[in-house]
## 1
Amino acid sequence: MTEFSLIMGSDHAGFELKTKIIKYLKAKGITAYDAGTYSTDSCDYPVIAQNVSQRVANKEFEKAILICGTGIGMSIAANKIKGIRAAVVSDTCSAKMSRKHNNANVLCLGARIVGEELAKDIVDIWLNASFEAGRHEKRIEMIEN
Ligand code: RB5
């Protein structure tokens, strides 16, 4: 484990929102590791998604937040990695349920879909909600196997 429990990544479309979320979390005492991209220059989201997701799957980090234009490309790529449960979220209820029932370990946001304030609310709720386990445990195992 590193000193960080949260890793964040984005492509060019998500760069500005990623920067704002990192700053927002830092002000709350949460330091997220920034895995790039580091500018608005065009780049390929699958590269970022694979790097970030692999590091979560390897247990280097507990959770990740990935941001692209819609969150969709990041989630499709992230879910290719065994052990990753990535959820694209654009409302606060789904943010909560993706943790409670699905034990999502990657949150995907669309910078062109959600505004900054909603994104911050989603991140807060997602980071603070816990997996309920119980009847959901078996279903997560089914996905894993
Ligand atoms: C980049 O233009 C855009 O396609 C990407 O950020 C993402 O939305 C893909 O799902």
## 2
Amino acid sequence: MEQKMIQEALTYGRRFVRYGKPASYIPELASKNPSRLGIAVCDMEGNLSSAGDCEERFTMQSISKVIALILALEQNGYDIVFSKVGLEPTGDSFNSTVRLDHLTNNKPFNPMINAGAIAVASTIRGATLEERKAVSIDFARKLTGNSSLDVDYEVFLSESNTGFKNRAIIYLMRSNGIIEGNCEDHLELYFLLCSLACSCQDLAVFAATLANNGVSPITGETLIQPRTVKLVRSLMVTCGMYDYSGEFASTVGMPSKSGVGGGIISCAIGKYGIATYGPSLDDKGNSIGGLKMLEYLSDNMGLSIF
Ligand code: GLN
């Protein structure tokens, strides 16, 4: 993508960062500088272009839900994973508990909300918790093309010390028979995935792999099976931006996933993987500057799939 276009998107996005604030329910995230904004774009040949604070490191948070889902599907197959989680949007906030205690259908609605992602993480295999963590980090390294990708342990501890809502969610699902085994182990794995530290460049490569039908634009290796890519991209469209997914589909129209760390990944299928970073969030937990940069690129380059 032309540098001029990326720079223009950044300039446009910067006008909006003052209207939000960093997530504060994870104490470690509250201290992030809300004026930061960055973007990286990776094309299908692996060429990267970037602008702004694109090298700043931030935690993936909910963007890791996509990685967890791909890994779980690869390890377990579709039947096991979708016996624990559905494929429907909720229209509720990402950490809502309201639909988890339904009499007949208490399966979490989809893998892009906390409950669904925790259920998915509970299926990630390994002989021990340490092995499950190592396999997950390794897989994230492959998908981002960054072999030194690692966990931000300060964010991890901050989240695991204060993650009461996620504890409520997992124990509710445990009592309803969705979750098996040790809840604290599953939560530790979930928090670890959320705390993976990355840059826009790392996530642009991952988004480009999804945009390139599962083939890494850097190595040419098939990292995700085509059937899984199709499924994951469709879930990103319907559920990837939480309870803003519908409006986002109409304003941006690309399979995307956001995280409360301030990141968003977006796939211009067959063209680009885009990653944005801006810790100033709106009230739904999406990066305000990121949304605006994606809107700009979608409008000016005709990137909407609709
Ligand atoms: N780790 C965060 C949580 O569980 C992820 C949420 C998000 O990015 N929306 O609350």
